[in-house]
Design brief:
The chain is 87% helix and 0% strand. With 89 residues, the protein is mainly alpha-helical. The chain has one domain (7-88): Methane Monooxygenase Hydroxylase, Chain G, domain 1, CATH 1.20.58.1000. The chain starts with 6 loop residues before the first helix and ends with a helix.
Length: 89
C-alpha cells in the first residue's frame, strides 16, 4: 500500500482491491456454473465494497478538498458539492 496516500484513500484502495478479488470470484463462479444464489451473494459483496470505496472517497474529499474550496471560492465549492450530489444519486 502506498504510504503517501491520505488515510481515506488508502482505505479506499484496500477496499477496491478486496472488491476486485471478490469480482474475480464471481467471474470464476459463473464460469464454473455455480449455484445462482451463491453467485448473487458474492456479487452483492462486490457492490457493498464498491459503495464503501465511494463513501470513503467522498468523506475524504468533503473533509479536505471541498472545505478548502468553500473557503477560497464559495460559489465554486457549491458547484462542486452539486456535482458530487449528482454523481452519487
Amino acid at each position: 500500500m502506498n504510504k503517501h496516500l491520505p488515510s481515506q484513500k488508502a482505505k479506499s484502495l484496500k477496499l477496491a482491491k478486496q472488491a476486485r478479488g471478490t469480482l474475480d470470484t464471481v467471474i470464476a463462479m459463473i464460469e464454473d456454473n455455480a449455484y445462482c444464489p451463491e453467485i448473487i451473494q458474492q456479487a452483492d459483496s462486490v457492490i457493498g465494497l464498491l459503495r464503501s470505496v465511494e463513501n470513503e472517497l467522498l468523506a475524504g474529499h468533503l473533509d479536505t478538498c471541498v472545505m478548502k474550496r468553500m473557503r477560497e471560492d464559495k460559489q465554486e465549492g457549491i458547484r462542486e458539492l452539486m456535482k458530487i450530489y449528482r454523481l452519487t444519486h
